Please model this.
Amino acid sequence: MRVSIDTNLISSKLPVQTKEKLMFEKQLKEFFFTAMLGGYAGNSESSEIPGMPGYKAIRYEEGELLLVDAYCTTPRSIRSSGTTTIFLSGNPIWWMTYYGEYEKVAIPFLKKVLSETYKNRSFCGGRGPSGFLYEGDFKYHNTLKRNDFADFAGAESICDRDNNPLGWHKFHGFSLV
Model:
């Protein structure tokens, strides 16, 4: 799905809640969902980041918009961290970070949860659905502290059917414009 962004709608001189800025945010959110479906949740190939051992990135570009999801892991643990940044004409305009740990058995379920949330165009801190989601042997939980595309924070976790933890991530982010 191609996202059309009217770059005339954004300017650092705009008041915080103008009609134009809200329209731009709606367009940007649509780009986010499209890009994330084409990224980690969609099993896209990542590439190593030169000069940053252990880091990989997934890029999605459409016109003047670029989303870069850069993350790092180490073979010595199940922990990971990363940032997702959206750029407009080469300038960063939106940013989120996440960190935590997941057992390998939980990752396919996590990708499925993220993918379904993005397909539904539901913004829940850039992660899976708010509240609880049960499926098969897994339970996903997302607790949001703030949930505006321009300012959000929360934590997610996955447990098995016996409520044994399989991992968690904390996340937050905000608009830079």
Q: What stands out?
A: The helical segments are 19-37, 107-119. The beta strands are 47-48, 55-62, 65-73, 79-88, 91-102, 131-135, 138-148, 151-160, 165-175.
